[in-house]
Amino acid sequence: MASLAEWIAGARPRTLPNAIAPVIAGTGAAAWLGGADVGRALLALLVAVALIVGVNYANDYSDGIRGTDDERTGPVRLVGARLAAPAAVRAAAAGALSVAALAGLALALLAAPWLIAVGVVCLAGAWLYTGGSRPYGYAGLGEVAVFVFFGPVAVLGTQYTQALRIDAVGAVAAVAAGALSSAVLVANNLRDIPTDAAAGKITLAVRLGDRRTRRLFALLLAGAGAATLVLTAATPWCAAALVATPLAWRAAAPVRAGRRGAALIPVLRDTGLTLLVWALAVAAALSWAPG
After folding, report:
1. Which keywords does this Swiss-Prot/TrEMBL entry list (predicted)?
2. Which of 41, 60, 210, 217 could pair with 27 as two cysteines, CB 3.0-4.6 Å apart?
């Protein structure tokens, strides 16, 4: 049986910034509209964290039973490493996704019932990323899904559930958050190109190849920086988010240097930290100078 530490590692805590940062940015965007609500923000945070933990366990289960994780560099794979029974990991995924569903239902009923449909799509996206007979993560669509779910859906959804409307500021923030979240997955899939290709997992990185995947990573970081500069048109205080630039530079260093395998693991951590610091700075700026 897996230990508690292994279960925690299997949840991939280093991906938590991808869940937390969009909620922070969306709350800042709601504050910009004068509609920030702490209670609804905490509910949105619970949805996001439970959802990403559920996604990570679901991926562990689905990749594990397919044999994709038999040879893998990076975080603990509970099923692939034979540390936990597939059924136990599937149950953990279902439990986390159930928490996300219940919190999301409460949030939708407080804000707008039609958001329940959005929640259903999010849950389906979480499971079908690597689950089901035709997982979209095996067809090179993972980065697109991450951009959508951790960018526009998470940021604008958070803004809407609090302010009951969205605006261009929230949309630009959503683009930046989505780009940085996608960059985390690009780095992950860059590291796994050899093993994914051998296992038949045709990610976008496998399709693009090593060199073009590195260029995509740089483009996503640059796109987030450009979106941040656009936000300064709303309030110059958003320039404070450029404090994340040194972290982004550090995250990109191993990618620029052509590092491979385990040497790319710090890229995921540093890109996640970039996203989190960026979101905190943007939220503070938008709250300080509401529109």
Report:
1. Cell membrane, Membrane, Menaquinone biosynthesis, Transferase, Transmembrane, Transmembrane helix
2. 41
Say which amino acid occupies 99: V
Tokens of 143: 């980065």
Chain-centroid distance, C-alpha 133: 23
Do 127 and 81 contact (CB within 8 A), yes or no?
no
Condensed to tens digits (0 to 9), the pLDDT of residues 155-188 reads: 999 999 999 999 999 999 999 999 999 999 999 9
Alpha carbons 57 and 43: distance in angstroms, whole number: 21
Pick the closest to residue 277 from 246, 231, 254 (CA basis).
Answer: 246
- Angle, in degrees to the nearest 10, between helices 245-256 and 265-288: 160
Q: Where are the beta strands (DSSP E) in 106-233?
A: none
147: closest CA among 92, 248, 84, 227? 227
pLDDT in tens, 120-134: 999 999 999 999 999
Residue with tokens 């669509």: 141
Dihedral in degrees, nearest 10, Cα atoms 60, 62, 65, 70: -50
Burial (CB < 10 A; 0-12, 13-18, 19+), residue 201, is buried
Question: What residue ranges in 13-71 does DSSP mark as E strands?
Answer: none
Residue with tokens 């999010």: 122
Structure-token pair, residue 142: 């993972």
